[in-house]
Amino acid sequence: MVCFSQSTLNSLNSISPNKTDYAGIYIHLPFCVHKCPYCDFYSATDLSLKQPFIRALMKEMAMSCDIPFPFDTIYIGGGTPSVFSARHIGQLIETAYSLFKILPDAEITIEVNPGTVDLDRLKEYKHTGVNRINIGVQSFQDKNLNFLGRIHSARDAIFAVEWARNAGFDNIGLDLIYGIPNQTKKSWLMDLKKTVELAPEHLSCYTLTYESGTAMNNDRQKGLFCPLPEHLVADLFELTIESLIDYGYMQYEISNFARSDSSKPGLSKPELNKSRHNRKYWSFAPYIGFGPSSHSFIEPYRYWNCSDVQKYIRDIDAGRLPIEKKELLNREQQIIEAIYLGLRQTDGIQIDIFDEKFGVNFKKIFKKIIMDLEKNGLLRLDQNLCALSRKGMLFHDAIVEMLICRKI
Ligand code: SF4
To answer: Domain count of the chain?
Structure first.
């Protein structure tokens, strides 16, 4: 079943992926037991739609089987994928393997919420071929979890990590949130200490943000609580990096850290523990999304599905891909993305690649801005790399804005 237009397919086929261009599959399972008040991801709480949804999802994958890339990651995210049984997760993985060319050593991740798993379920996930687990812990303190409206306790979070290890997962990632109202350095350090005691291979530490339209943002606007002042959030950001480096983690992206030691042979250790899938988002590698609200990127195209599970099922049943919008990124948009995403990573922007791709001289164009930023300790430039300093990362968005204002 050919679902892309012939011109799109021709342009996809003209891109011959090199070794670093293996594509990723993202599968969005948009169901949650309860909506967390800070969350602006698309998810529904009517779990009765799970069964027809899984059927539609497998059909959507079959409708897209003409994609010409080999894949080396599958990421099952949400929502809360762990509200689905291992039977459903196994069906999705089998369907992906039967339709697409997926490397035998593919990284296959599932996100889980500690309030929805037990040891048996995690063992069953392991048997489906999932080899990486990402646990939405957010905090190891009940008062923070209550404020965030999470369905689990700190004790559930600790059990979830221990069960994941006992189930045989040797690649575990934890998500944490800081910048919570009234949070102190001492209290955040307690969370970080508990985290490293559990020795996850990977950590994502996000600042609490107040996204428009969320219940938490509405409460903030009504003055029902006082957000942590920005300078204190900045202190916690610096503390996160300093502490995690001391604890043996390497920062490789503004919010992401990989454990530096590992008992596994092969790649250098932090390299092995980085999220292979998430790095695709930052490095322009192709990825295909399935499920409501999922995004896909095949340079220079970006497209995304509708954010409505009922419409999604209706579209699929009618034989239509549920694509809401498709964009062709022009040169200017690609440059903005390259700067924005490059500066999120500690490796920064690789200047020779940037110059070749866009036919420019990066150092010459940005000479004045770069000199100013360097003088203020916000950016470092060497022969072939341009990256933000730790202090510069605090001002990532503003620095990107300064660079992209310069017409290329
Ligand atoms: S469990 Fe995750 S996806 Fe679901 S509402 Fe909470 S933060 Fe959002």
So the answer is: 2
Q: Rounded distance, CA 384 to CA 381, Å? A: 8
Which residues have CB under 6 Å of ligand 1?
A: 32, 35-36, 39, 41, 43, 78-80, 113, 136
Same domain, 274 and 360: no
Please check whether residue 275 lies inside any domain of the structure. yes
User: Which stretches of 4-118 are DSSP H helices?
Assistant: 6-13, 50-63, 86-99
pLDDT value at position 268? 58
**Protein residue whose Cα sits closest to atom 3 of ligand 1:** 79
* Residue to mutate (ligand 1; options 29, 33, 80; most atoms within 8 A of CB): 80
Which ligand 1 atom sits nearest the alpha carbon of residue 78?
Answer: 3
Q: What is the pLDDT of residues 372-390, one digit of tens each?
A: 999 999 999 999 999 999 9
Q: Is the model's pTM score more than 0.70?
A: yes
Is the preceding peptide bond at 300 cis, omega within 30 degrees of 0?
A: yes
> 50-63 and 309-317 are packed helices; what angle lies between their axes, rounded to 10 degrees?
50
**Which is nearest to 183 in space by CA: 133, 239, 127?**
239
Bridge pairing between strands 70-78 and 379-381: unpaired
Ligand 1 centroid–CA 78 distance in Å is 7
Task: Locate the ligand 1 atom nearest the alpha carbon of residue 38 and give its number.
Answer: 7
Out of 28, 29, 31, 32, give the residue to mutate to test ligand 1, the one with the largest number of ligand atoms within 8 Å of its CB.
Answer: 32
Tell me the average pLDDT of the chain: 92
Which residue's C-alpha comes closest to atom 2 of ligand 1?
79
Asked which of 267, 282, 297 is the last residue of a domain, the reply is 282
Q: What is the pLDDT of residue 253?
A: 97
Asked whether residue 81 carries a pLDDT value surpassing 60, the answer given is yes
Q: How far is the centre of ligand 1, averaged over its atoms, from the C-alpha of 37 (Å)?
A: 9
- Return d(Cα 259, Cα 201) in angstroms, integer: 5
Q: Is residue 315 part of a domain?
A: no
Closest ligand 1 atom to the C-alpha of 113?
Answer: 1
pLDDT of residue 107: 97
Domain final residue pick, 282, 309, 340: 282
Q: What is the pLDDT of residues 102-134, one digit of tens each?
A: 999 999 999 999 999 999 999 999 999 999 999
Percent of the chain past pLDDT 90, that is, above it, reads: 88
Which CATH number covers residue 40?
Answer: 3.80.30.20
- The yes-or-no verdict on residue 265 having pLDDT over 70 is no
Q: What is the 28 CA–ligand 1 centroid distance (Å)?
A: 12
**Of 309 and 267, the one with more pLDDT:** 309
When pLDDT is averaged across residues 58-85 and rounded to a whole number, the result is 95
CA–CA separation, 194 and 158 (whole Å): 9
From the CA of 151, give the closest atom in ligand 1: 1
Structural domain including 392 reads 351-405
